[in-house]
């Protein structure tokens, strides 16, 4: 990726057509719909594995609580996957409705990974149906095995979509003559320069989001005094998954940051407030960039150079290397989002280590309230970290939609999207509220069943699994 | 050769979406017209129970069709997405509302909420097929120009487009009614069986009439396509008509064996008739033809690899799903104790 500034075919045309405000509604709409979809996507990617883990524990150790949890999670999963599917369909429409310029130019390139995504989603949908509706009649291990393809295709689907995004960051694998794609090397499109870190980083993020979110629901219950085996198990299984992957995530993120510094230096400059190319670049934690200065925040001299090249003398490219029109819009937003992601990621290490230590010493999770509060916070924290990461990636790439090839303004539709933006915001607000209300209803119903059960009223759902399931806590 | 194969793959995926996903939309139509709470209770329950486990799988064919469209024919896709932005947005919003109403209705037990969701489900079930039909009608009549960059109402509000929109609604309702006849039969519910036989007959007649009207309109809008429809695509057109008549005859005589397949074949013949008549253009009225529509060879080759993957991996998975359903091994957790109707999905095995 040497010479990142030299082979820029589109620079000239951008400088000529520097008006970019016209595409703002389209960008807001894309960001809003993706920001919504991605939460459900995370659950669709990682939650099946967590459900399967609970079912595995349940079957292996004849643990009725784990089995009951797996069953209930899969019901919630059914609702969430459906919302994920419809919001994903909107995104597919939006690729054309918002970015016809992108599709006209590059549809035949970035469509390929999307095609594989399609195959994986077909599989995921089919096996999700079998798994969710199969609890009653496909007992035991055969039911477990019908869930494995969901987990596998979720990961495959995520790899495919994220490779589209990483291709937009590091486009390659095609030949273009006179503005027409003449050749495509599918392999290189798929495994582009950025997919090596983006794909694992996103898939792990999905596991952190799903695991910590599920755990935080039971942490909330625990803090409200429901300190039973059901809540402990419900917390422990997803929490163990997410907490054990957190350190790996931080390592990959660190690699990603160095790769971004090398391959997309202007994005990196915005992430780290590097205004001038130089050595001994300081690291800022927090702070607001305004009028050429950083206000507030913690300044660590030479630290950024050290992180990028393991030596304080490392030259880091600043955004002065490109004209103002080729810089992303708001370094403050990008920097603060990056800091939030890294900070929250580091925070999420703490409860994991604490839990591990306690478990190692006493074979039990800590009873301390602070631990469970941390567990509660980690769910929303993972979601925020993930959203912040996407803001860094997407806004940091501006003004490009395909890095150094096509600008967002060139890609955007000439149609007025303000009406659809309005409609979508209303629609998605309703959808989000309805989804949350629905999940709460489900959990209230389950609690009612549990207390009936504790009082000796049989539960049709649990009964044939284990008559003691509700009472054993 | 390769471009034609890719075109056939796209058409095949569209067929699957129209005949499976379309029927789910059609069921929403019957939900809408099922009448008040008490009168509509039983048909609504049958509709809900039969679609719940399968609508999402059926729906993914749409996504796959979109991806194939933009990958194989990026220019045509961009043109359609720009010119037909309005109906496409409306169709997408319909998809969201329909899916959400579905996902939520299982869990909603209060009557007023169920009613509201039912209304959303039903209205959105009309919206999506209608506006998709408008888009297809506009394409077929040659109203979308190859380098369209702006929304252009003439490209989807011509008479052919509007009739095509109604035709889509009709065809979806027709398929759904036929599938629901089968479903009622399987549950040995003769009341609902007769209920849906009547509706299938009505929808069949309406759809047949709408096809003829649309065909007539097409003659004025795109003479070439019309000539080819009654030229080289004639066998398919005849097949479609014959299937429609056979279904009507079978419904009248209560000969219900193979009914779903014949209905399915009829609608499939219409889709392929359109494809054959339009060959080799991608956007009629423009110079975009299959072999120069924008994607390089390696892309088309990869799409064929994908098609083979779908054939060898996804088809067995779908068959497994049907097989489980056929053996009644799938059931909803959420069927409340008070509503012991087993949850048996329909319109699956039997269709190829
Ligand atoms: C739970 C979520 C989560 C956590 C804890 C982290 N990240 Fe992250 N990060 C994401 C979730 C995420 C993501 C899923 O939102 C992104 C957006 C694009 C991508 O592939 O992953 C991302 C992108 C992203 C990028 C931009 C890549 C690009 O623009 O191409 C960098 C440089 C980092 N991350 C670095 C880090 C570092 C150094 C972390 C901690 C020490 C870290 N991330 C923790
Ligand atoms: C494979 C996945 C993704 C693809 C293909 C994709 C594609 C795009 C495209 C085409 C744009 C418009 C052009 C641009 O502004 O650069 C965009 C913008 C945006 N996307 Fe992504 N995106 C992906 C993932 C995500 C996710 C998961 C988020 C989650 C938050 C996200 C957030 C945004 C935001 C905030 C913008 C607006 C940028 C701006 O306003 O400047 N993206 N994305
Ligand atoms: C990083 C970004 C993304 C990830 C990781 C992701 C992942 C997923 C996953 C796992 C699902 C399965 C549904 C579920 O289980 O909830 C899903 C659904 C879907 N996604 Fe996304 N997605 C991303 C962005 C996009 C983009 C940019 C598009 C389209 C342009 C898209 C289109 C779809 C579609 C059409 C579905 C529905 C498939 C179905 O019906 O099963 N996604 N996504």
Verbal overview:
The complex is a heterodimer of chains A (473) and B (352). Chain A has 473 residues and is mainly alpha-helical. Chain A has 15 helices and eight strands. Chain A has helices spanning 11-16, 24-60, 64-98, 100-133, 140-169, 186-190, 195-223, 229-263, 265-272, 303-309, 331-362, 369-396, 408-411, 418-454, 460-463, and strands at residues 174-177, 180-184, 283-285, 288-290, 293-295, 298-300, 400-402, 406-407. In chain A, the strands form four sheets. Chain A has a two-stranded antiparallel ribbon with strand order 1-2. The radius of gyration of chain A is 24 Å and the shape is globular. Chain B is an all-alpha fold and 352 residues long. Residues 334-352 of chain B have low confidence and may be disordered. At the A-B interface, helix 3, helix 4, strand 2 and helix 14 of A face helix 3, helix 4, helix 5 and helix 12 of B. Bound molecules: CIS-heme D hydroxychlorin gamma-spirolactone and protoporphyrin IX containing FE (2 copies).
What are the salient characteristics of this protein?
heterodimer; A: 473 residues; mainly alpha; two-stranded antiparallel ribbon; two-stranded antiparallel sheet; 8 strands; 5% strand; globular; disordered N terminus; disordered C terminus; B: 352 residues; binds CIS-heme D hydroxychlorin gamma-spirolactone; binds protoporphyrin IX containing FE
Low-confidence parts of chain B = 334-352
Which shape of chain A, going by the Cα principal axes?
globular
Oligomer: heterodimer
**Number of helix segments of chain B?**
12
The rough form of chain B would be described as globular
Mean pLDDT of chain A: 86
Q: Quick one: how many beta strands of chain A?
A: 8
N-to-C CA distance of chain A: 59 Å
Which molecules are bound besides the chains?
CIS-heme D hydroxychlorin gamma-spirolactone, protoporphyrin IX containing FE
In percent terms, what proportion of residues of chain A is strand?
Answer: 5-15%
The gyration radius over C-alpha positions of chain A equals 24 Å
**Sheet having the most strands of chain A:** 2 strands, antiparallel
Flag low-confidence runs of chain A. 1-20, 458-473
């Amino acid at each position: 990726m040497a010479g990142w500034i030299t082979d820029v075919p589109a620079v000239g045309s951008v400088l000529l057509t520097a008006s970019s405000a016209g595409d703002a509604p389209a960008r807001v709409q894309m960001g809003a719909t993706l920001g919504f979809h991605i939460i459900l996507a995370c659950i669709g990617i990682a939650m099946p594995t967590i459900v399967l883990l609970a079912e595995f524990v349940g079957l292996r150790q004849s643990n009725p609580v784990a089995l009951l949890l797996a069953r209930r999670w899969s019901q919630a999963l059914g609702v969430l996957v459906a919302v994920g599917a419809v919001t994903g369909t909107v995104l597919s429409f939006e690729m054309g409705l918002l970015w016809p310029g992108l599709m006209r130019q590059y549809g035949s390139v970035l469509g390929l990974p999307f095609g594989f995504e399609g195959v994986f989603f077909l599989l995921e949908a089919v096996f999700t149906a079998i798994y969710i509706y199969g609890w009653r009649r496909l007992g035991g291990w055969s039911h477990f095995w019908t869930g494995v393809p969901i987990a596998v295709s979720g990961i495959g689907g995520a790899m495919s979509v994220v490779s589209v995004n990483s291709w937009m960051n590091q486009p390659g694998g095609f030949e273009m003559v006179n503005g027409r794609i003449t050749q495509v090397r599918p392999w290189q499109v798929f495994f582009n320069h950025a997919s090596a870190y983006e794909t694992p980083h996103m898939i792990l993020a999905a596991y952190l989001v799903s695991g910590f979110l599920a755990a935080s629901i039971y942490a909330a219950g625990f803090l409200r005094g429901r300190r039973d085996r059901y809540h402990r198990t419900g917390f422990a299984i997803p929490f163990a998954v997410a907490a054990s992957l957190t350190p790996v995530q931080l390592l990959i993120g660190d690699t990603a940051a160095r790769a971004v510094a090398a391959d997309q230096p202007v994005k990196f400059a915005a992430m780290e407030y590097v205004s001038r190319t130089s050595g001994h670049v300081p690291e800022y934690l927090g702070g607001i960039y305004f009028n050429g200065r950083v206000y507030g925040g913690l300044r660590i001299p030479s630290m950024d150079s050290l992180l990028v090249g393991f030596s304080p003398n490392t030259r880091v490219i600043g955004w002065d290397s490109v004209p103002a029109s080729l810089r992303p819009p708001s370094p403050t937003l990008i920097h603060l989002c990056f800091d939030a992601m890294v900070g929250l990621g580091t925070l999420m290490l703490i409860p994991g280590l604490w839990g591990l230590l306690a478990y190692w010493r006493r074979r039990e999770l800590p009873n301390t309230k602070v631990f469970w509060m941390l567990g509660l916070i980690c769910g929303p924290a993972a979601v925020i970290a993930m959203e912040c990461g996407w803001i860094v990636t997407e806004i940091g790439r501006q003004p490009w939609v395909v890095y150094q090839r096509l600008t967002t303004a060139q890609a955007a539709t000439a149609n007025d999207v303000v009406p659809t933006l309005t409609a979508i915001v209303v629609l998605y607000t309703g959808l989000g509220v309805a989804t949350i209300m629905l999940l709460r209803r489900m959990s209230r119903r389950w609690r009612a069943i549990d207390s009936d059960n504790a009082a000796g009223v049989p539960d049709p759902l649990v009964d044939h699994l284990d008559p003691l399931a509700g009472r054993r806590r | 050769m390769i471009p034609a194969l890719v075109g056939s793959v796209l058409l095949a995926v569209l067929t699957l979406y129209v005949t499976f996903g379309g029927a789910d939309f059609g069921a929403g139509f019957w939900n809408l017209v099922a009448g008040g709470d008490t009168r509509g209770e039983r048909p609504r329950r049958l509709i809900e129970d039969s679609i719940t486990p399968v609508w999402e799988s059926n729906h993914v064919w749409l996504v796959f069709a979109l991806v194939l469209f933009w990958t194989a024919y990026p220019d045509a896709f961009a043109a359609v997405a720009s010119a037909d932005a309005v109906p496409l947005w409306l169709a997408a919003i319909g998809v969201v509302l329909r899916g959400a109403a579905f996902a939520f209705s299982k869990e909603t037990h209060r009557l007023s909420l169920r009613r509201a969701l039912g209304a959303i489900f039903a209205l959105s079930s009309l919206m999506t097929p209608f506006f998709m039909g408008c888009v297809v009608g506009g394409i077929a009549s040659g109203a979308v120009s190859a380098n369209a960059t702006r929304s252009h109402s003439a490209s989807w509000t011509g008479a052919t487009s509007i009739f095509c929109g109604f035709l889509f609604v009709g065809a979806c309702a027709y398929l759904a009614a036929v599938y629901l006849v089968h479903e009622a039969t399987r549950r040995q519910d003769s009341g609902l069986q007769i209920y849906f036989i009547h509706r299938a007959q009505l929808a069949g007649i309406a759809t047949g009439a709408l096809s003829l009207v649309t065909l007539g309109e097409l003659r004025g809008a795109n003479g070439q396509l019309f000539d080819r429809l009654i030229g080289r695509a004639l066998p398919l057109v005849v097949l479609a008509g014959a299937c429609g008549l056979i279904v009507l005859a079978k419904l009248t005589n209560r000969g219900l064996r193979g009914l779903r397949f014949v209905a399915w074949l009829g609608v499939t013949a219409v889709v392929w008739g359109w494809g054959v008549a339009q060959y080799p253009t991608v956007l009629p009225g423009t110079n975009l033809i299959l072999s120069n529509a924008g994607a390089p060879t390696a892309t088309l080759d990869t799409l064929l690899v994908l098609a083979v993957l779908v054939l060898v991996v996804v088809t067995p998975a779908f068959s497994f799903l049907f097989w489980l359903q056929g053996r009644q091994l799938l059931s909803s957790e959420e069927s409340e104790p008070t509503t012991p109707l087993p949850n048996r999905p329909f319109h699956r095995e039997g269709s190829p």
